[in-house]
Structure formats: C-alpha cells, structure tokens
TrEMBL record:
This is Fimbrial protein. The keyword Signal applies. Residues 1-21 form the signal peptide. Keywords: Signal.
Length: 418
C-alpha cells in the first residue's frame, strides 16, 4: 500500500487599503452676554474665512459662513446627452442634521451639537464649452430637489477652455442635486474650488454647560452612496472628509458687593431675623433682663450677574468642624459660624431643580450638592449670605466677656465647576 503525503500550504495575502482623507478645522465660540437674554445656542464662527463667502462676499448674507472643501472630482467616462443623473454632474451632501457629542478637554463634560451643510459652491472647468445643460445652459437651477437656486452662476472662457462657478442652497432632505447634459461630453473636465456653507448650533442648553474648550470630530464618507456623493462617473480626490470641531464656551459670572456687605458685625437677633446695630443693642439689654440667650446673625448682600453654571463654597480663616469660626481675642476659643446662601430666582440647584434659599454653604467644593444653573441670563440680581451663631455657642461666648470674636470668611463663586 502506498501512502501519498500531501503538504498543503496556506498563502496569506496581506492587503491594505489606503484611505485618503480631507481635513477641515472649524472653530466657534459661545459667549452669552449678560445684557442679552438670547440663549438659542448659536455659535459665533471664529474659523478663518475661506470658500465662496471669502472670494465673493456679495453672495453671502451677514450670518452666512463658508469653508473651503478640499476635494476635487474628475470625470471617469464620457457623458452622453440626456444622461442618467448619476452618470453626469451629480451631488449630494450631509444636508440633514448630524448630531455630534463634543467633550471638554479638561473636565470631560460633554454636550451635543447639530451640524448641517447649508450650501455648496464649486467651479466646473473644461477644455470646451461649459454650457449646454438642461434647465438653462448654466448651473443656476439644479434638479433633484436637494438644492435650490441661490444666485445666477457665472464664468468665462478662452481658446483653451472655459469655466463656470455656481452656488446652491441645500434643502434639509436626502434628495440629490444634479444637472443633465444636453450634449455628448467626451472632453476631460473636473469640479474643483469647492466650498460649503454650514450651520452649527447646540442641541443642549449651553447655559447649563461649563466654560472651556470642547472638541469633537465628524467623519463623512466620500464616494457613491457616501455622505458626499458625486455620482458614479466622477471620482473624488479623497474618500473621507474629517471635520474637527473646536468650540469655546465662555460664561460670565460677576459678583458685586459693597464695603458695608464685606465688613459685618454679628448682632443678637430673633431666629430667622437680621437686626441692625441699634436693634442689637436693644436685644442685649433685653437679654440682661430675660437671660434668654439670643442667636447672633448678620447678612451680606450682593448682586449677581450670570450666564452659566457655577458652584459656591467658603474658605475660612478659622475652621470649626464643618464650619468657619470666629476666634476669641481673650483666650483663642473658636465658635462656629454657619453661612447660608440665597440666590436670585433665575438660578436653580442642579440636583434639586429648585431655587436656592438659605442653603448651608460647605467649606469645600461640593459639585454634587452645590452646583447651580442659570435658567435665564440675569444681570445684577439680588442675593445674600446669612451668617449665624447658634444660641448654645453664644452661651460659650458670654463666658469670656467682655470679649471680641473675629474672623474672616471668603465666599467662592466658581464657574470652573470641575
């Protein structure tokens, strides 16, 4: 019996596909003004001007923005007269809203933005006539329902060829935009000098978003059936368009105080009340008769202007447990002082979703319980901080009389929450 041994070899072919990408960097900022209640989440463009709005500004409205689109398409095979749409000058773009999550580079906080291509411009160049298209000889009126007339196209020519420039507004749909040739086209030609207009708005309420720089990337495919689709005949210079978003959110937070509100004298007063110095003298006289120990209270008023989120806490010259303290001049005894925060009614606690009235202030940053959101932009709204020494602590103070207790409490309003 004869055995035949077969040695089977597996040949593995490593194949790699090269993905060419075109990159666009878009920058914008959101800086709500305290004296302007507009909080619609629209960014102010800070990207250097490029594209058709830069070259032909008369074709752009005041709020229009455009950016150079680093793509070129070249024809693959001749176009026959009355061609099928995808075999000729065919275009489609990310015209429907695309949602992207951008992230704060320092804190990790995120929010969503909505991006959409709102217009498209390109130049067609050929070594023969650029005319002889349906719906008029030029490129002013696209077909397909995906784009609309914006401005008449224009162009020029010489003995070596001609060119035509056009700008279309896009519709918020997935329909294509195309032109049908009325003649056979065998000559080489291409679409280049492309640019696009776009809109960029926040999906989330930016008044609740912390200040900082947020980044994200949109990646769009290029090619038949892709996000940027130039039909079956025209080959694009790249297969991916990456759009890097770099967004700056800058909130205002202004606290205005007076010298009187920064130098306080604690006065004996009834529970929940704030007394003047004269009333305090009267209450000490009453104590000498009744021997009923009062509380000591004081109030610091302030005006607050805010457009975003912030947190508050206190720092102490002297600390007693979880509170600041005042210190006896006689023997150094410390007595705790509680601080209670009341904010304007346009500001709510993020955790409880309620307005802030006499909230006990911590001596350290507590973003879980003490992060506050601005519901509506407010300018010079009234707030206050109430200070309190409890009755049993006043009893301790009276044991060292005559005496003076003093200390410094620093109130922190911090928009850098994280």
């Amino acid at each position: 019996m004869r055995y035949y041994h077969y040695i089977l070899g597996t040949v593995m072919l490593a194949m790699s596909a090269v993905v060419n990408s075109a990159t666009i960097n878009l920058t914008a900022k959101f800086t709500p003004a305290i004296n302007n209640s507009n909080s619609d989440g629209i960014f102010t463009n800070t990207t250097p001007r490029s594209g058709y709005c830069s070259r032909w500004p008369k074709y752009c409205d005041a709020n229009d923005v455009s950016v150079y689109l680093p793509l070129t398409t070249t024809i693959s095979y001749p176009i026959v007269a009355k061609n099928k749409p995808r075999e000729g000058a065919y275009f489609n773009f990310p015209k429907t809203p695309r949602i992207l999550t951008v992230r704060n580079q320092n804190t990790g906080e995120t929010f969503d933005v909505i991006f959409r291509v709102t217009s498209y411009s390109s130049q067609l160049t050929t070594n023969s006539s650029s005319s002889s298209w349906d719906e008029g000889k030029d490129f002013s009126a696209p077909r397909g329902g995906g784009c609309t007339f914006y401005t008449p196209s224009w162009g020029g020519g010489s003995g070596s060829g001609s060119w035509i420039q056009f700008i279309w507004k896009t519709s918020n749909n997935t329909s294509p935009c195309y032109k049908i040739s009325t003649i056979n086209r065998t000559e080489p030609h291409r679409f280049y000098d492309m640019s696009m207009g776009y809109s960029l708005v926040a999906k989330d309420n930016l008044l609740t978003v912390g200040s900082g720089t947020y980044k994200g990337k949109l990646s769009f495919t290029v090619g038949p059936g892709g996000d940027f689709d130039f039909g079956d005949n025209y080959q694009a210079s790249d297969s991916v368009v990456d759009i890097n978003l770099i967004l700056s959110v800058n909130h205002d937070l202004i606290v205005t105080t007076t010298p009187e509100s920064r130098a306080l004298s604690l006065q004996p007063c009834s529970a929940g009340k704030i007394c003047t110095e004269e009333q305090g003298k009267q209450n000490w006289e009453r104590w000498m008769i009744t021997k009923i120990t009062p509380q000591l209270t004081a109030r610091s008023d302030f005006l607050l202007s805010s457009t975003g989120a912030f947190t508050t806490y206190i720092q102490c010259q002297y600390v007693h447990g979880e509170n600041c303290a005042i210190k006896s001049d006689n023997n150094g005894q410390l007595v705790p002082v509680k601080a209670y925060l009341s904010l304007p009614n346009n500001i709510i606690n993020q955790k409880t979703n309620s307005t802030v009235t006499r909230a006990l202030m911590p001596i350290h940053k507590d973003i879980v319980n003490n992060t506050f959101l601005t519901k509506d932009i407010g300018s010079n709204r009234k707030g206050n901080i109430d200070f309190l020494v409890a009755q049993h602590d006043v009893d301790k103070m009276l044991l060292t009389r005559p005496d003076t207790y003093r200390g410094t409490v620093t109130i922190i309003f911090d928009p850098q929450i994280y």
